[in-house]
Amino acid sequence: MSNDFCTDLGQCRTKQFMTLLGIGGVVVLAGLYAFFTLEHHGHVLTGMNNQIVWGLPHVFAVFLIVAASGALNVASIGSVFGKPMYKARAPLSGMLALAMLVGGLAILVLDLGRPDRLVVAMTYYNFKSIFAWNMIFYNGFFAIVGLYLLTLMDRRLKLWSKPVGFIAFLWRLSLTTATGSIFGFIVARSGYNSALMAPMFIIMSFAYGLAIFMVVQSSMYRWNGLRLDENVRRRMKNLLAVFVGASLYFTIVFHLTNLYFAKQWDYERFILLDGGMYTFLFWVVQVFLGGIVPIILLFVPRSKDTEAMCFCFLAPSLVILGGLAQMYVTIIGGQAFPMNMFPGHQVSSSFYDGVVGTYAPTVWEWMLGLGGVGIAFVATVVAVRMFKFMPQDDFTELQMRRSTD
Amino acid sequence: MSEPIKQDTPAADGERRTFLKAGAAVAGAVVAPGVLLYGVSQARPPEEGASSKQRWGLLIDTTKCGGGCHTCVDACNAENGLDGKTGPQDPQWIRKVDIKDLRTGYVQSLPMMCQHCEHPPCVDVCPTGASMKRADGIVLVDRHICIGCRYCMMACPYKARSFVHEPLTDQNPEVPRGKGCVESCTLCVQRVDRDEQPACVEACTAEGHQAMIFGDLKDPQSAISQALKSVDSVEVRADLGLNTGVRYQGI
Q1: Is residue B184 part of a domain?
Q2: Disulfide-capable partner of B181 in A55, A228, B67, B146 (CB 3.0 to 4.6 Å)?
Q3: Residues of B in Cβ contact (< 8 Å) with A112
Q4: More confident residue, A5 or B51
């Protein structure tokens, strides 16, 4: 069969498929090796300590989980809001959501101090804990989105796709609310403790999820020697620009709200002005590279060839980079800033009270974090290979165009 | 006719001695645990569980707390089997915090540990319920169900909790600890259950500082309740409304 155009992905490009699988497999194995090493020696091998208790693995994990719920948004626009263009992309969207959730959760679980007690985590629930609710939402997400995928891909169940899609939409909103609230409900720390965390995480999930969807979609089209239809491209890039703009808006409101309360001034000065690495990551990577540049790229008119590059690959890639920076600033910056136990006092102790926490991720944390990304990647590659996740609407159109070329 | 009295043979004498020795050993074995059990029975029986009729607390007088003194920290480390290292990854259940008023320059030193809140954020956030509060107000970590997620460390406003980053050796059998779990001050629960004072309080008193008073906050006659009535004391981060069991005087 020709490699130029594959309608059945299971029959073509085996060599490339195996290469991708091999790369992903090596990354996953590296992650597992890091896990076993940390399990044996303890977290003493990581840069995490009693001041920065959640580190780089959590940055990747929370990013993947937030992006997972956002990736489902494409399907929701199709099923819940009835847009046919997005409906054709619903299966890919649902599959990506599941793949990323698997990757994110794997990191969270493998980073536990006692990962051998996963059964305990599944059987003992403190319903006052938002973390426990997250576990319920994650497990439910697998069940509901799995069922949703079934209704999308099995003709006999097609009728059910709308109601199940609606439930999936509500569930994903709840899930991201709960994920944002993991931080929003922490009253102890200046960087968290905000009602804005939950809605901000939701809007950011829209941006990150759609960005990853667009990167995967572009790769799949390029993989098959296809060009994404211009209308599809224009609509998706407009939607991404709206989401990125909304994320920036929420970022501004979040920091303004903090500035309004006198107690948070010091924290805001830390993040916005003199936090070193955190200030750099916030302004340069999160806001500029991950927010302003993608919006410019998405709206500046360009010739058709460069347009394809910027709209569908470069801009969303930058959004992903900005998203990782945002998670780093939120999660690690929020912990690095010292807790204000004695307002109006200079504080010092042998337990690093009153000083900015130091954190340098070690290679084990990179391996574990990237291992989770690898799991999501391998799951996606295998799923795309085994099932028909290629968006179908413009497919026939493009096929026709090709035959008339 | 009377029978002649038999003289004990040396062999019979030896048997009697053995018998007496064995008898003494058996009697000792029976009585000794009894004596021990009597002592234990004076304390709260283990099966009774902690009682909500009590609430254990501490009052710390910062004006009596010595600036360079670490007696309470050393006593805690010795009692609970901590090695006393102070690297970023080393657990510290109690630490001395030095504070300086930025306006007046007034310097104080005080011990900081788990504040044993009535409404502990660590207990609220723990997904498995491993972080828990006993009926008598002591906040503990159930090491059998702690999964090491560290969310309680994120949530504690007093930075009172530590994560065990590496395997441990030479543990105190009364205070089991373990790699991968979170831990913090237990108010020396093993001592409290024997009607003893926490190690830090005992050491501070022995050192002559008398900066810490331990006792039952619900008993109006207890030394701590009497002291709380007569002095002005505060909670650290009182704005959070956690009603801590540890209160400070002089800050």
Answers
A1: yes
A2: B146
A3: 147-149, 180
A4: B51
**Is residue B105 included in any domain, yes or no?**
yes
Q: How many domains does chain B have?
A: 2
pTM check: above 0.80? yes
Residues A214, A309: Cα–Cα separation, whole Å: 11
Containing structural domain, residue B37: 8-42
Counting other chains too, the contacts that A159-162 makes at CB distance below 8 Å and 24 or more residues apart are: A161/A79, A161/A90, A162/A79, A162/A80
Q: Is residue B1 part of a domain?
A: no
- Indicate if B74 and B28 belong to the same structural domain: no
- Facing B163 at nearest CB: one of A50, A129, A182: A50
In a domain, B2, yes or no: no
| DSSP single-letter state for residue B224 | H
Interface-testing mutation among B179, B182, B235, B240, with chain A (most A C-beta atoms within 10 A): B179
- Kindly report, residue by residue over A344-368, the tens digit of the pLDDT: 999 999 999 999 999 999 999 999 9
Q: Is there a contact between B83 and B174 (Cβ–Cβ < 8 Å)? A: no
pLDDT, tens digit (0-9, with 9 covering 90-100), for A308-319: 556 778 999 999
CATH number corresponding to A12-338+353-395: 1.20.1630.10
Same domain flag for B38 and B138: no
Task: Give the whole-angstrom CA distance, residue A183 versus residue B176.
Answer: 31
pLDDT in tens, A42-91: 999 999 999 999 999 999 999 999 999 999 999 999 988 888 889 889 99
Distance from the first to the final alpha carbon of chain A: 20
Please check whether residues B24 and B108 belong to one and the same domain. no
Binning pLDDT at 50, 70 and 90, where does residue A4 land? Answer: very low
Q: Does A353 touch chain B (CB under 8 A)?
A: yes
pLDDT digits (tens, 9 = 90+) for A257-282: 999 876 688 999 999 999 999 999 99
Say yes or no: B124 and B28 in one domain. Answer: no
In this predicted structure, what is the pLDDT of residue A17?
87
**Domain ranges in chain A?**
12-338+353-395
What is the ipTM score, two decimals? 0.90
Q: Roughly what angle, to the nearest 10 degrees, separates helices A14-41 and A90-110?
A: 30
Q: Within this chain, do residues B151 and B99 fall inside the same structural domain, yes or no?
A: yes
Instruction: Indicate the pLDDT class of residue A403, thresholds 50, 70 and 90.
Output: very low
Pair B13, B68 in one domain? no
Q: Is the pLDDT of residue A399 over 60?
A: no
Looking at the fold, whether B36 and B157 belong to one and the same domain comes out as: no
**With contacts defined as CB-CB under 8 Å, which chain B residues touch A53?**
150, 153-154, 163
Nearest CA to A31 out of A102, A124, A79 is that of: A102
Q: Which one, of A80, A236, A248, A64, lies nearest residue A171 by Cα?
A: A80
Residues B95 and B144 in one domain: yes
